[in-house]
Amino acid sequence: MNQGEAAPPLWQVDALLDGEPVDRRALRSALDDAAARDYLVDALLLRRMSRDMGPMRFSIPGTPRAAIVRRLRWAAAGLIVAVSAGAGYAYGKGSRVEASPGYFEVVLDNRPAPPAPEPTRTIRFEPGVNWTAGDRSR
Amino acid sequence: MTGAAPLKAQVLFAAHRDGVFRYLCRIVGPTEATDLTQEVFLRVARSAVPDATSDGERAWVFRIARNLALNYRRDTSRRPETVPLTDASRPAAQESAAAMREALDRLSPLDRDVFLLREVAGLSYDEIAGSCEISHAAVRTRLHRARQQLRAELRPHMNDGTGSVVRLYDTR
Known about the structure:
The complex is a heterodimer of chains A (about 140) and B (about 170). By secondary structure, chain A is mostly helical.
């Protein structure tokens, strides 16, 4: 068959393949021909080959669920760090100690020192007493 | 853009992203198809969605996809083509996918688009006509011609026994 010219019986087979309306008598007549049956089978095989030559479903590579979860975790961690830093800054600003003026002032305290406490036990030093013998507690 | 437009774009994205991606994937490859699919729906979100039936909306979305694919192919055709250095033997499935890709490349761009919009995106003849801005009869003629040409070119791969199971309706 000339390739540029479609034979009408095969159009019925095409219509059947493609879900288009088909005249049942014309289809029956077309399918009586072995060449039309071969064409039907070959067209189904072409359909299968065209579908098998690549993926059938759309998906964006590199962004599976795990990666999205990982990104969300990083974002949450970043948010926590930012909030903590902001809260620390605000707290520090509120309770800031006044800066020192940058010089020293020496103050002399002339008040008398407080008296020493009374001893709890008095040791009397007496000349002639042998401290290494006998009762040392005297 | 009206307030309802982003919502409409989301609905269109949910409904047609896989079909648009499948179609683009077979023209420009999976990596570029991912970017282009996102670009398609960015344009959908920025545009006023035409008041049409759901079939008309689908044709409109695929018209955007087709225009982007044509622009991409035109731009990349100016760049030097890269050739893999390895000459290792490939499994039969990869061989047949590569043969299919090469055979699709030998089709005229419009025949290839009509074929892919039908077979991998699942558009009806009317929707393909709307996407490609051709008549219903032209869709039928071009689709038949594309099948005949692919069938002739891929006959060795079709008879190697690897694709022995076929189904009329593929629900993937």
